[in-house]
Specification:
40% of the residues lie in helices and 19% in strands. By secondary structure, it is of the alpha/beta class. Strand 4 (116-122), helix 5 and strand 5 (142-153) form a beta-alpha-beta unit.
C-alpha cells in the first residue's frame, strides 16, 4: 500500500459534511445521474464485490448494490460522516442489506490487494495531492479481470453558474481566495487517458458524456452551490453576506436568462489483465 499525503483532507471533510444537507436536493440530480452511469460502465454482474470510493450519499453505491444483488456485496467509503448517515438511511429504505458504509480516507484504505471485482470512484480522486498515486492505490485493490471506473468533470462544468458565483463572491468578500480546483486539469479525453494509463499501465476506455442541469428556478444555482464544493466559500460568510451573495447571483441569472448549468462527465474504464 502506498503512502499518499492528503493535506486537503480537513477542508474536504468539512465542506462535504456541511454540504450533505443539500446534496440530495432535486437541483443536484446530476449526482445520481452520473453515479448510475458509472455503474453502467462498470458492467457489474450478480454476486460481485464492489468498493465505492468517495461514495457520498450513495449515488453510485446504491445502484451498484442493486446490480450485484443479494449474493454480492458493496462497501462505500467516504470521509464525510454526514454523507454516510444519509447513505445508510437510503440503503435501509431500499432494503439493501448487502451494502455497508464506512468512514475512511481513500489514501489509507487498508484493504488487501486484489480484493474487489470492481472499484468505483465518482468525482473523488482529485481531492488528494498526488492524484496518480491515488489512482494506483485504487487499482491495487482490483482483482485480475476486474474493473476500475473513475469519473471526472468535463469541460465547462457548472458554467455559467460557476463564473457568476466567483465574480459575485469577489464583490461580497474579496478577501476569500479563489479555490484550487484540481479537477480542472482532467477535463479532456487526453488528460484522463494519460493520468489513468500512467497509474495503471493500462489504456482506459473513456466515455465523454455531456449533461446539463436545468434550473427550475433561478435559486436552484444557490442550492447547487450549497450542495457542492462551493459550500466551503459559503461557510466563510456571515448570514448577511450569504443573503447578499444569494440575491446578487439570483438577480444575475435572471437578467442573463440562464436556465441551466453544464454538468458534463468523463468516465474512464480500466480492466485489470487476468
Amino acid at each position: 500500500m502506498q503512502t499518499i499525503e492528503n493535506p486537503r483532507r480537513p477542508r474536504v471533510a468539512a465542506t462535504y459534511n456541511s454540504a450533505a444537507d443539500h446534496f440530495d436536493a432535486p437541483a443536484l440530480g446530476f449526482w445520481e445521474r452520473h453515479g448510475r452511469r458509472a455503474i453502467h460502465h462498470a458492467d457489474l454482474q450478480s454476486g460481485q464485490s464492489v468498493l465505492d470510493v468517495g461514495c457520498g450519499t450513495g449515488a453510485s453505491a446504491l445502484p451498484a448494490a442493486a446490480a450485484v444483488g443479494p449474493t454480492g456485496s458493496v462497501i462505500g467509503i467516504d470521509i464525510a460522516a454526514a454523507m454516510l448517515d444519509r447513505a445508510r438511511k437510503k440503503a435501509a429504505q431500499q432494503g439493501l442489506t448487502h451494502i455497508r458504509f464506512e468512514q475512511m480516507d481513500m489514501i489509507s484504505m487498508g484493504f488487501r490487494p486484489e480484493t474487489f471485482d470492481a472499484v468505483i470512484s465518482v468525482f473523488s480522486v482529485f481531492f488528494v495531492e498526488d492524484i496518480a498515486a491515488q489512482v494506483a492505490e485504487l487499482w491495487r485493490v482490483v482483482r485480475p479481470g476486474g474493473r476500475l471506473v473513475l469519473t471526472f468533470w468535463g469541460k465547462a462544468a457548472f458554467q455559467p453558474g460557476a463564473t457568476i458565483f466567483a465574480e459575485e463572491l469577489g464583490n461580497v468578500r474579496p478577501d476569500i481566495p479563489k479555490p484550487v480546483r484540481a479537477w480542472e486539469r482532467f477535463t479532456t479525453r487526453s488528460a484522463v487517458t494519460d493520468l489513468v494509463s500512467s497509474a495503471t499501465g493500462v489504456v482506459p476506455i473513456v466515455h465523454i458524456e455531456p449533461d446539463r442541469q436545468p434550473l427550475a428556478t433561478h435559486r436552484d444555482w444557490w442550492i447547487i452551490a450549497m450542495g457542492s464544493g462551493s459550500r466551503w466559500e459559503i461557510d466563510q460568510l456571515t448570514v448577511d453576506e450569504r443573503c447578499t451573495l444569494e440575491d446578487r447571483i439570483t438577480t444575475r441569472l435572471q437578467v442573463e436568462g440562464v436556465g441551466a448549468v453544464m454538468v458534463p462527465a468523463i468516465h474512464a474504464v480500466v480492466t485489470k489483465p487476468s
